[in-house]
Amino acid sequence: MPGPNNLERKQKIWLLILLSALIVSSVWVLLGGLHNPLFPNTTSAVVEQRILWQLRVPLVITAFIVGAGLAVSSAVLQVLLRNPLADPGIIGISSGASLAAALFLTLGSAIPFLYVQYLLPVFCFLGALLSTAAIYLISKRLTGMHSGVILAGIAISTLSGAVIAWLHFLSDAQTMRNMTFWLMGSVNQADWKVLTVAGPSLLILLGLLVRQGRALNWLYFGASSAQLAGLNVTRFHKMMLLVCALVVGIAVSIAGSIAFVGLLVPHMLRNFFGYDNRFILPASGLLGGIVLMVVVLVGRAVGEVSVPVSMLTATLGGPIFLYSILRLNRQMG
What we know:
- The protein has helices at 9-30, 45-80, 93-110, 119-140, 145-170, 173-183, 192-210, 213-219, 223-228, 233-255, 261-273, 277-301, 309-332.
- By secondary structure, it is mostly helical.
């Protein structure tokens, strides 16, 4: 793994300008700039203001913070596990949170009083934490910590997918529709009640991750070098895995399971701008938020019904990621 690269000041400035411009333009369109055709027009100013503040603004905030959370957590996991393919979905964290959400949705349809809005994030937190703990414990019994985590994550993801499939099979038609649409990702369910709890929590956790850029750089040179620099590697790994699990749990609880954003964004940034995590982590957050906002725009533009987010991220991200892998392989060859 190559060491961190120092980016030229001009490169950083131009990238930040580009990201800022993309954020402003995406937010403007999502909020209805230029008589945005993606949202219904109304003749009443009162109704228009209500649509703006009750629907559009929460949608924009949700798309940005979820995309940022997935991208930053993936960037951290890729360093911790020394694997450029590390992603909350691949190593099983998202799968655990999704399984907990699916169980909650199923129970919520059978027991109406249980279906309380604030319980869904709690279930997702528990699912993400339990899956992370299971992955960590299983990996300790396997040879090689980094490969062990990947293998344990694949096993947890497969098992979670099987249980979710059984829940689909055993659920009634309405529960099946709700579960399918939610697990495929959607930011349309976000509102201020959820964001007042999830938003600040997610931003605080992202701040904790971004502040660890220097410590993550030390890991490039191996655990021994990081310990000489004053880092307790074992404790640091546990803390970062816990924070990433919380971030993913929050993201899944408010937007469902979203594929490829976390995997693709930091991977492409490192290909173009190097490996310095003091820059990669905040840049991943900005770009991840922009990517998800653009995906939401595309999903609203392609038809009368909003397309599930994961359908678009997988459709757009899969070919791009395949091209990136082939390009990297040619460079190494």
